[in-house]
Structure formats: C-alpha cells, structure tokens
Q: What sequence folds into this?
C-alpha cells in the first residue's frame, strides 16, 4: 500500500463536538463544527468538521504559513519588486475584491497558466530585459489582451502611460483626439516627455487621428500606439 505525503501529515484531534452551527450571521444552513487540537503546534482551534474529514483543513493555519515560508525560501524572490509585480498581476486579474479587478479580470483579462508559477514568470522577465531597481513596469502590448509572454514587455512608466486604452468619455473614439464645445471642432494633441503638444483643430475626429498618427511616425516616437482609422478616411 502506497502512503501519500498528505497521509503522513499529523491530523487535527477532535476535543469537543460543537454540534450544528451557522457558519456566519447571514448563513441559512447549519453545518457541524468542533474544537480541534492542531497536530503541528498543539493549539486548539474551531473548524468545520467536513473540512477536517475531507482534508481541506490540515491545521490551525500554522501549516499553511510554514509552507508559504518554505516556498519563499525556495525561490528566494519574495522580497523583490518582481515578486510584488507578479502578485499584483494575479490579484487584479483573479481577485474580484481587488480595487482594480473591474479594469482587468472584470474585462476578461487574465494571467496565463504558465505564469501562475513565480519561477516561470521570473525566467521570462530576466530573459526579456527586466532589471531590479530600474523603474521598469510590465506593459501589455494589446491593452485588451492577457498577461502572457507574447503580449507583455518591460517599459518605463512614461512609455507605459502611452499605451492606455481610450477612455469611455472620449467621444472621438481616437487616442489624442477630443471634442471641443467652444469651436465645435475636434482638437488633437500628444503628450511627450510630460509636455502636451497641440496638433491642431479639425472638423472630424478622423482628421485629428491622422494628425496624431503622423506626428508619431514623423518623430519616430517609441511606445505610442497608432490610431486605427477606417480606410475611406485615408484616401
């Protein structure tokens, strides 16, 4: 008979059966609880009996903390900025309670399965120009795409700011173009090195978008995304 590593772990010991209780004040159904002695540290703790029997609850919490500590020591990355970046990506794409989840996971943006392992994410980062303390941040090339190797790069904050998606209140539907009520025209401007450059006023948003694109092309600006303009406006 083969004994798994899970079977070798010390089991919590039932001290007192608390009977059927509501898990929370808002719960409609009762479940059985008990007081258990932790097999790792010996502390007493309250737990759902089914969780103990199914093996989902292995300790008072000390075992999970120990495993997390061992994992951190194994890859040695927990104190790095890269580890913080990786954790933030997971939270904003996978945790509905995160402040910015609606802008990421809520829009269908996720992190690829490969990067759920910090070591894989680290290997990709180092192979693609990441350096600690260089002020780099991860940027998705397609702002509607996922966090995955083919859609991500390392950039400075200035370059990343150029790759923001078009705001919902932008009536022009183009980057760098906004409607001006004063003269009933569309104004085009671009921000380079923290300075706004006025590109002119136009009768249509497409004319402003063309001016925006041309400025990027003529000045070989790095990191800016060109507006997608229908072919009929380019003739």
A:
């Amino acid at each position: 008979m083969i004994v798994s590593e899970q079977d070798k772990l010390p089991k919590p010991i039932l001290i007192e059966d608390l009977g059927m209780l509501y898990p929370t004040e808002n719960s409609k159904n009762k479940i059985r609880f008990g007081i258990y002695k932790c097999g790792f540290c010996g502390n007493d703790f309250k737990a759902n009996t089914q969780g103990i029997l199914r093996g989902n609850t292995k300790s008072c919490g000390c075992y999970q903390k120990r495993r997390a500590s061992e994992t951190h020591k194994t890859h040695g990355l927990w104190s790095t900025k890269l580890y913080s970046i990786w954790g933030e990506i997971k939270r904003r794409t996978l945790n509905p309670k995160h402040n910015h989840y609606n802008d990421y996971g809520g829009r269908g943006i996720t992190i690829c399965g490969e990067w759920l392992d910090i070591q894989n994410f680290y290997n990709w980062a180092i192979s693609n120009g990441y350096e600690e303390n260089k002020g780099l941040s991860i940027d998705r090339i397609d702002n509607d795409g996922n966090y995955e190797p083919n859609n991500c790069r390392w950039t400075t904050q200035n370059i990343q700011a150029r790759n923001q998606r078009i705001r919902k209140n932008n009536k022009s539907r183009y980057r760098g173009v906004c409607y001006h009520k004063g003269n009933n025209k569309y104004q085009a401007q671009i921000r380079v090195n923290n300075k706004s450059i006025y590109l002119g006023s136009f009768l249509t948003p497409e004319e402003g978008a063309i001016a925006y694109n041309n400025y990027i092309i003529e000045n070989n600006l790095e990191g800016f995304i060109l507006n997608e303009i229908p072919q009929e406006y380019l003739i």
